[in-house]
Amino acid sequence: MKNKMYSLKIIFKRNDQIGGKRIEPLIMDFLIKSGVNGATAWTGVDGFGKRGKSILKLEGVTVNMPLIIEVIDEQAKLEPLLPELKRIVGDNGLVTVQDTYVF
Fold first, then answer.
1. Dihedral, CA atoms, 7, 10, 11, 15, nearest 10 degrees?
2. Domain count within the chain
3. Is 14 in contact with 64 (CB distance < 8 Å)?
4. How far is CA 18 from CA 14, 50, 55, 73, 85, in A?
5. Has this prediction a pTM greater than 0.85?
6. Were 71 and a residue from 8, 37, 65, 77 both cysteine, which residue would form a disulfide, CB within 3.0 to 4.6 Å?
7. Tens digit of pLDDT for each residue in 90-100?
8. Which structural domain range is residue 78 located in?
9. Measuring CA to CA, how many Å separate 2 from each of 5, 25, 37, 55, 77?
10. How far is residue 13 from each of residues 17, 52, 63, 73, measured CA to CA in Å?
11. Can you give the CATH number for the domain in which 9 is found?
């Protein structure tokens, strides 16, 4: 049996900040407090967008890589969170949603 759910992705650079605080922990704390079932943060190895490349290599060490936070939950739970997530991310990244099915 499959359940129709929402797949929410928040895409930004690892070192992006709002008000002097890194975006990633702000988003994860917000999601926990909002009661979503779970979230995963994925670190990318390379990327680019309207703000240029998302990678910087220094002697084999990569910093400021792309970061994706992914959440799968019910539409009714995630949709009300979208305005606050977009406020946190601002012009630093993207907030996307799509229908998905969980088996």
1. -150
2. 1
3. yes
4. 12, 18, 20, 26, 12
5. no
6. 8
7. 998 999 999 99
8. 3-97
9. 9, 32, 17, 38, 18
10. 9, 11, 10, 24
11. 3.30.70.120
